[in-house]
Each structure stands twice: as C-alpha cells, then as structure tokens.
Amino acid sequence: MAVWATVFLEFWKRRRAVIAYDWDLIDWEEEEICVVIAAVFGIVIYRVVTVSTFAAFKWALIRNNSQVATTGTAVCINFCIIMLLNVLYEKVALLLTNLEQPRTESEWENSFTLKMFLFQFVNLNSSTFYIAFFLGRFTGHPGAYLRLINRWRLEECHPSGCLIDLCMQMGIIMVLKQTWNNFMELGYPLIQNWWTRRKVRQERGPERKISFPQWEKDYNLQPMNAYGLFDEYLEMILQFGFTTIFVAAFPLAPLLALLNNIIEIRLDAYKFVTQWRRPLASRAKDIGIWYGILEGIGILSVITNAFVIAITSDFIPRLVYAYKYGPCAGQGEAGQKCMVGYVNASLSVFRISDFENRSEPESDGSEFSGTPLKYCRYRDYRDPPHSLVPYGYTLQFWHVLAARLAFIIVFEHLVFCIKHLISYLIPDLPKDLRDRMRREKYLIQEMMYEAELERLQKERKERKKNGKAHHNEWP
C-alpha cells in the first residue's frame, strides 16, 4: 500500500500536468484539538465501564461476547461524536483562519484547508490510534491491575489480539461514514429543492399548476456551497488516509473505498446536473495544498503500518519464537512445524492465591478438574510466582521488544527507499506532453524571431526611404 500510494501520487502529477496544459494553466499563478482528546477519553471511560457491565449481564449471549458488544457500541457512539464535532471544527477553523488575516485568497484557502484537514483527521482517527497503540498496553497484570479511579479495570484487548478490535473499529466507522456522506450529499439537496418548490407553488396560488420556465427552475435549485469543491476534496483525502494508514489491520478498506467511489461518481454527477445551480468556473493550476497533504499521509502510512505490524499484531513474537525458542531454534527455519508450542510460550503462570480481593474468581475451578486449581495462565511474558522476582519480565519479552524496534527501523527505511526510487524513476511529465511543450516553445520563439526580424526590416526600409540609413544597423 505504501508503494501504491507513491505510484498514485506520481501518476497524479503526470495527469495534473496534462490537464493544466490542455487548459493553458501551466504558467498561471494565483494572485483546537483538546476537544478531541476529551472525546476520546470519554469513549475510553465508556468502554471500561461497559465491558464490566456486559460481563455481568444476565443474558449469556451478551455475557459471553462482552468484548465484542463493548467495541461495537463504543464505535457507534464514537461515530456520532465524530459527526457532531465536525460541525464545530468547521466554525473553529474558519474563526482561526480569519484571525490570521491572510494577505491573499490563495493563502486564506491554504490555511483554512490545512486546519480543517487536521481537525477532521484527528477527530476521525484518534480513537483508531488509541485502539491500535494504547489499548491493553497499560493494564498491569493479574494481582496488580491498574484501575480507573481505583474501581474499574482498564480495558484489555480481545484474547485473539488487538487487531480484532482495530478491524471492527475501522470497518464500522468506514461503512457508517461513507453511507452518511452519500445520504447527505444527495438527500439533503433533494429535500431542500422539494421544500423550495413547495414554497414557490404556494406563493403562486392559482397559477401554481402552470409549469415554470427552465431558467426559473434552474434558479430555484440549491446554490453550490461557499467553499466550492472543498467538501469533495476533504472527503477523498480522509478516505485516502483511512485506506492507507491502517491497511495492515483492515485489508478490506481499499475495496470498500473503491465501491464507494464508483457510487460517489454517479451521485455527484446527478447532484451537479439536477440538484445544484451551475457552478461558476474558476482557474487553478493544480489541487494546491491538498497534494502536500496527500504526500504527508503517504509518509504517515508507512510509519503507522510499521508500528501496527510490529506492535499490534503477533507477527514479531511468532518470528522470535520460531527462530529463538521453538523446535527449529538455531536452524534458520520458520515453517509451520516450528510454531509448535507457541501459544504455551506466550502465556505466563499466575498463582490464584495472589489475586486481589476484588479480583478473586467466584469458584475454585473444582467443577472442571475435580480439585481446586492453584494456577492459571494469562497472556504476557512474565516470570512465574516462585522466581526470584515474581511476575517480572522474562528474557523473551526483551527479545521480542528488541525485534519489534529493529523491524520498525528496517521496515521504514526500506519502504522509504522504495518510495523515493519510484518517485525518481517516474517522470513528472509524460514524454508526449514534454515533446508538445518543447515544440510549442520552439514555435513561439520562432514566431517572435520572425516578427522581430520583420519589424527591423520594415524600419530599415523606412529609414532608407527617408535617407537616414546607418551602416552599423543590425541586418
């Protein structure tokens, strides 16, 4: 996906150059985030409280799937908060941009665009970053859990890993947001135009059955919003980020984006032709600051996917076990047979008598094994209770941590080298366009030379005619 993002941007450069040349625009030039943190913290508290409530629910279906139920409801609430905050951020971005008092219209547009993107990007992705990199990282361990206001345990990842929670978060948010955007883009103008026609017919009274002339029908359509295509650009840029930044956790994101864009093209065509007044054309050399934002997202996607693969997934722990601790340790192999015993090696031993009073199990497990259980297992790399440092980190933990950091550094440098190589190999201008521009420049220079030569020859003839010829003239 990092390579695709680079190829996409490089080919967009070429396409932009062709469009700018066809429209004769090659040489044309134009004359708070703290609320997001509070919202994310509120969602964290909701998840912490709800997971314990669902775990004690009377219905076995909800009790056995408390983690999934908590994640699903939290994502839906988070989506509602995102939509509400987007309205607020537009007003804040507009206020901050006006306070800056930019000198030109292009500077105002760039400043407003950057602020709106940052606000909405953080608003849309803050909870996703929390799940990917913070959920379950600071919960403590059995016997020493960290608690919120000394009451609720901090939420942990699903037993299968945090990728499940991250995948659910991205899938639900992406589907809901695309559905909502498509409804608002088409449904809102339809309702407004219906209401406008209804008011006009009521004002006409007895003449309301008379059909309106075409110019009046066009005038009664909705005007294009004050920011032009800003909302369209913003939607596509946010989708580009959502598709590339966490693609390692949600590989279906590009497919959902493709399906949405196929529908979006037709909806936009219908909206522009039938629901909006004809927009006023304005000249632009390129997409402006949006291209820089796309490049920034491409760089961020490499970093986040490196961290998702190294930290959120089990890719690195499995490799460390296969090469260092598994049956094939020291043999340079990492096949399926080398993973025998991995689950057991990823679990630590806990003595049940070391539980806190508030965390003691309701039964001693004798109904399963016939005798009371003395030990249980949990997912972590910690020493057993009878070691010199009970529940301290094992050597395998530090091996996994070092491998994760090494993978992040190697992965980022490798992908960035590939990105820069691709950028270097793909020229910004297509060869046929470059040849056309050179020929056009040559013809212009030739025409200017011939025109200047014709002017000088004409002046020379006039001087000769008037008897004022000079011998040092340029021939």
From TrEMBL:
Pfam families to which the protein is assigned, alphabetical: Anoctamin (PF04547)
Superkingdom of origin: Eukaryota
Protein name: Anoctamin
Family label: Belongs to the anoctamin family.
Sequence ranges assigned to domain Anoctamin transmembrane in this UniProt record: 1-32, 35-440
Primary location group: membrane
GO annotation, cellular component aspect: plasma membrane
Keywords tagged on the record: Coiled coil, Membrane, Transmembrane, Transmembrane helix
Spans through the membrane: 35-57, 69-89, 117-136, 237-259, 287-311
Coiled coil: 439-473
Matching InterPro entries: Anoctamin, Anoctamin_TM
Topology in membrane: Multi-pass membrane protein
Keyword Ion transport: no
Subcellular location: Membrane
Gene that this polypeptide is encoded by: ANO4
GO molecular function ontology, one term from the record: intracellularly calcium-gated chloride channel activity
PANTHER family: ANOCTAMIN, ANOCTAMIN-4
Source organism of this protein record: Panthera tigris altaica
